[in-house]
Amino acid sequence: MTSGVPGKRPGSKRPGKEGAASARPSGPAQGAATPASPAQPGRARLRARLRGLLLPAAVVATLEGVVRAGIVPSHLMPAPSELLLTFEYLAHGPLWKHIGASALRVACGFALGTLLALLVGALVGLSRRAEDFLEPTFQALRAIPSLAWVPLLLMWLGIDETSKITLIAIGAFFPVYMNLVAGIRNVDRKLVEVGDMYGFSAARRAGRILLPAARPYLFTGLRNGLSMSWLCVVAAELLAATQGIGYLLTDGREVSRPDLVLAAIITLALLGKTSDTLLKALEKRALRWRDTFAGREA
Questions:
Q1: Does residue 268 belong to any structural domain of this protein?
Q2: The domain containing residue 163 runs over which residues?
Q3: What is the pTM assigned to this prediction?
Q4: Residue-wise pLDDT tens digits, 190-224
Q5: Which own/partner contact pairs does 103-106 have at CB distance under 8 Å and 24+ positions apart?
Q6: 4-49, pLDDT tens digit by residue?
Q7: How many domains does the chain have?
């Protein structure tokens, strides 16, 4: 027998506040931990740069304290505060002339060595027959230290700019060449087979598949080649130059001024870091399609 109230079943209750509250979608519990929002890219880059400055700042502070305490003689290792005075003196004098001369030599030698490495590396990487002819010779030449070329280049080309740029080009050639060949030979075979299925010619296969896929290796070689260029320019300027960072090193040694030598070394470090940062930014822009592991914070 049903109840006299129409539309109401026996035992049913009218939904009250508790029922309405239970019917609502459940949100995060009060006091529950909410997931942390990702850090902004600008703040993350700032923190990374600050971390990179910790080690140099610690070294500078340690050297300042060690020299001021008399543990290390100042005539052998000047304090960083004294180096600032040396940089101020050089900045109002010949420093920019030396920087400009070395940078121009590095730019010309690196461009020449890279161009030759791209041509020869692509030829060796794409052709097995070219590899048979050229690879043994280049591997033997790669084992020769850069300084070993200096006497021969001085006898052949003299002490002018040609010998210095040639030495820098030799130093930049082999890292770019080796990495480009390795990049081409490490391309996935399936990509090449897809190109063959579509009837790609050899030139189109190289331009559309092999060379783009080898681009990460190429940028690694470019950065290594740029570093070798700075090493070679110092070697060239140490022996025969009237201006440049290498000449500044020699000048500091001859007059027994370690502050000049350290100033030249720090200038080289800053120039190398600046040029590598620019090339790294270009690499990041050219390879923005990659989805690679970027490391963990832990």
A1: no
A2: 103-241
A3: 0.80
A4: 888 888 888 888 888 888 888 888 999 999 999 99
A5: 103/271, 105/161, 105/164, 105/165, 105/168, 105/233, 105/236, 105/237, 105/244, 106/168, 106/226, 106/229, 106/230, 106/233, 106/275
A6: 444 444 444 444 444 444 444 444 444 444 444 445 667 877 887 7
A7: 1
